[in-house]
């Protein structure tokens, strides 16, 4: 098997994740999109790992959320991630295109790059990584619908196997949840962020260091002034 050699920025990022692993917020980044009227929009998301053997980053979301519409259609799939690691005082800004992976959306990335089998296993794996609490909103009313306590639906019984009692649900461990392989909500969507450029800033080094990387330049590192 050939060993994959990742770009320098990807190796730096893996190291930053390791060095900052004790900080829960190290797994959160801000992701920007552009609305159809040209306005920027920004939100916090959880980093859920790399697409295996690539430098693409994974997050999950609800297909009913505004960001999905913002990222659909021609020339609309652009994103920028801003990610700050507070222990090591490093910032990464990654820009590129996002691919939306869901059974409820028109195939895009998965047909050309992932293939159906890989798409299904990615959806399954990311869904099974979610806690019961994180799964709950996918079964509730749409994001931004007027709040109604009664609309907070319990997760359907058949989606939880034998664990139907709320009290029991609270005690379900992560590994129990991972056992339910076939319960993917139709609202579930995996986002694959495919970077084309990376802007890295290290505030801790003396002097401070800034490096730029571009896929068009074969990810060659360019050290520039901060
Ligand atoms: C710490 C934190 C983590 C979050 N992680 C996610 C996430 O992984 N996926 C997601 O869709 N929303 C996440 N959110 C909520 C989003 O920031 C945002 O409020 C929501 O997705 C609606 O955004 P939209 O209207 O731009 O679609 C998170 C919020 C916080 C504060």
TrEMBL record:
InterPro entries: Pyridox_Oxase_Alr4036_FMN-bd, Split_barrel_FMN-bd
A Pfam family recorded for this sequence: Pyridox_oxase_2
Domain of life where this protein originates: Bacteria
GO MF entries: FMN binding
Pyridoxamine 5'-phosphate oxidase Alr4036 family FMN-binding domain segment(s): 8-101
Extent of the signal sequence: none
PANTHER family xrefs: AGL049CP, PYRIDOXAMINE 5'-PHOSPHATE OXIDASE ALR4036 FAMILY FMN-BINDING DOMAIN-CONTAINING PROTEIN
Protein name, UniProt field: Pyridoxamine 5'-phosphate oxidase Alr4036 family FMN-binding domain-containing protein
Organism: Paraglaciecola psychrophila 170
């Amino acid at each position: 098997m050939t060993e994959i050699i990742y770009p320098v920025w990807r190796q730096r990022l893996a190291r930053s994740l390791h060095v900052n692993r004790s900080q829960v917020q190290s797994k959160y980044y801000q992701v920007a999109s552009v609305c159809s009227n040209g306005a920027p929009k920004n939100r916090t998301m959880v980093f859920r790992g790399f697409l295996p053997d690539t430098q693409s980053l994974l997050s999950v979301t609800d297909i009913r959320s505004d960001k999905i519409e913002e990222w659909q259609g021609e020339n609309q799939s652009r994103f920028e991630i801003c990610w700050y690691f507070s222990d090591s005082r490093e910032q990464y800004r990654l820009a590129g295109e996002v691919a939306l992976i869901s059974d409820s959306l028109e195939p895009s990335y998965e047909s050309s790059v992932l293939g159906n089998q890989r798409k299904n296993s990615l959806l399954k794996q990311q869904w099974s990584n979610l806690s019961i609490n994180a799964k709950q909103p996918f079964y509730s009313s749409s994001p931004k619908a007027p709040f109604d306590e009664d609309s907070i639906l319990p997760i359907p019984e058949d989606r939880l196997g034998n664990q139907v009692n709320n009290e029991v649900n609270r005690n379900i461990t992560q590994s129990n949840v991972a056992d339910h392989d076939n319960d993917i909500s139709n609202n579930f969507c995996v986002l694959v962020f495919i970077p084309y450029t990376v802007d890295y800033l290290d505030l801790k080094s003396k002097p401070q260091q800034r490096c730029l990387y571009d896929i068009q330049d074969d990810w060659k590192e360019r050290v520039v002034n901060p």
